[in-house]
Design a protein that fits this description.
Structural class: mainly alpha
Number of domains: 4
Mean pLDDT: 85
CATH architecture of the largest domain: Orthogonal Bundle
Number of strands: 12
Radius of gyration: 23 Å
Largest sheet: 3 strands, antiparallel
Distance between the termini: 42 Å
Order of helices and strands: HEHHEEHEHHHEHEHHHEHEEHEHHEE
Length: 403
């Protein structure tokens, strides 16, 4: 039914459901707290419809408990790892050590009392980490007497607070970083138990190699009938359209491409009605664009130094993309992009913050810009080479445009 023919009541219902779907896609684990109370009431009001929609199309289960709401969301199978945890203060992606601390903290909290203090948690993380031969062989450091390690642990703790696993009762993490003062937390064990979202238990996969175990954790059971096969194709395509900024046709199997050709109109219309995302269909693929610019981890374009540098870099990569299409070239060396950004600093540095005008700051600026472009599936990185992808052309400047 066209939007302009719906009644006011139907439009309100549609917008409420969209708000719920968007919130769950952006934050699959929503703890119950004062800031989320209104949203959780709205989710419970539309629970039957939400459960049915998520089950029927992307094949995700929606669990609602008194302490939390959890969408058991399976990541896009083609994910490149570029959309991980982000430091809430600096905006920088988590380092490998922070991910190690994150996993160790979860394992320590699993055996912790309901109330715990940060110093005890740090000591247990250090004890467990030092006792792991794989981490020891990798040279992972756990010296929480050093400020850098404490900062990494605190970034993990803040992430767990945002997720609702921990509630801060007394103290603050900055005092721990500066002077190792204690911070007291309450552990929400029910939320902790839902952190891991997998199709099968990790303990059942001990004999498989590590990367194989990661794949098997999320793998659905193989379809045994034609109808199950069609459902599997549908859920995989819905997951990609909902979870990935761009779906490129060349990344799909022949069977997936055939199914999508027959069902594309219904699928994109269904997603648009449920989420408000607008399909942008090109010869190379489909992008589900958000007019509200809120349902994304990485806004593009964005204000500030990072946003300006990102647009300049995108335009340079667009020029390279055109040249590659004509000559059939391979990837672009990161060193060449460093030189380009250095030249941009000379021309536009007066618009940038001071630290981004120096070579070290420009290298960090380039790394952040490439991370954003990769997460948006506008480029592909292979070691020290960058390959522009077709969707990057939507940021191409016309000749009369100015940055």
């Amino acid at each position: 039914m066209p939007a302009d023919s719906k009644s006011a009541e139907e439009l309100t219902l549609l917008e409420e459901r969209r708000d719920c779907v968007r919130a769950l896609l952006q934050t699959p684990l929503i703890p119950h707290e004062p800031a989320t109370a209104d949203l959780l009431r709205l989710i419970r009001r539309h629970l039957l419809w939400l459960r049915d929609w998520f089950h029927q199309y992307p094949g995700w289960h929606l669990q609602v408990e008194s302490d939390f709401v959890r969408l058991e969301k399976t990541p896009d199978a083609g994910g490149d790892g570029s959309r991980g945890l982000i430091d809430d203060r600096s905006g920088a992606p988590f380092s490998p050590r922070r991910y190690v601390f994150f996993c160790l903290a979860l394992s320590v909290l699993e055996k912790s009392d309901r109330q715990c203090v940060l110093g005890d948690l740090a000591r247990e993380v250090e004890r467990v980490g030092r006792g792991d031969p794989v981490l020891a062989e990798a040279g992972m450091s756990f010296g929480f007497e050093g400020r850098e390690c404490r900062q990494d642990l605190v970034a993990v703790i803040r992430a767990l607070i945002r997720m609702g696993v921990l509630i801060r009762i007394h103290g603050n993490e900055e005092s721990y970083v500066q002077q190792q003062e204690e911070v007291l937390y309450t552990l929400r064990r029910a939320v902790l138990a839902r952190m891991l979202c997998v199709r099968r238990g990790p303990s059942t996969l001990d004999d498989a190699p590590f990367l194989e175990r990661l794949r098997l954790l999320q793998e659905d059971s193989a379809p045994e009938s034609d109808e199950a096969r069609r459902r599997s194709l549908r859920t995989e395509l819905y997951r990609r359209l909902l979870d990935s900024p761009v779906l490129y046709f060349e990344d799909l199997s022949e069977e997936e491409q055939t199914y999508l050709r027959g069902q594309r109109t219904f699928m994109v219309r269904n997603i648009r009605e449920a989420t408000g995302l607008v399909p942008e269909i090109r010869a190379e693929g489909i992008a589900m664009v958000d007019p509200r610019r809120s349902l994304t981890d990485h806004p593009m374009p964005e204000q500030g130094t990072e946003g300006h540098a990102g647009l300049l870099l995108a335009e340079e990569l667009c020029r390279t993309l055109r040249d590659q299409e004509e000559r059939g070239d391979g990837g672009i060396p990161v060193s060449r992009l460093e030189q380009f950004l250095h030249q941009c600093g000379k021309a536009h540095g007066h618009r940038w913050r001071r630290d981004a005008r120096e070579p070290a700051g420009q290298r960090l600026l380039l790394r952040a810009a490439l991370h954003r472009l990769e997460a948006l599936r506008l480029i592909r990185r292979d070691g020290e080479f960058v390959t522009p992808l077709p969707a990057l052309a939507r940021y191409r400047l016309e000749e009369n445009d100015h940055v």
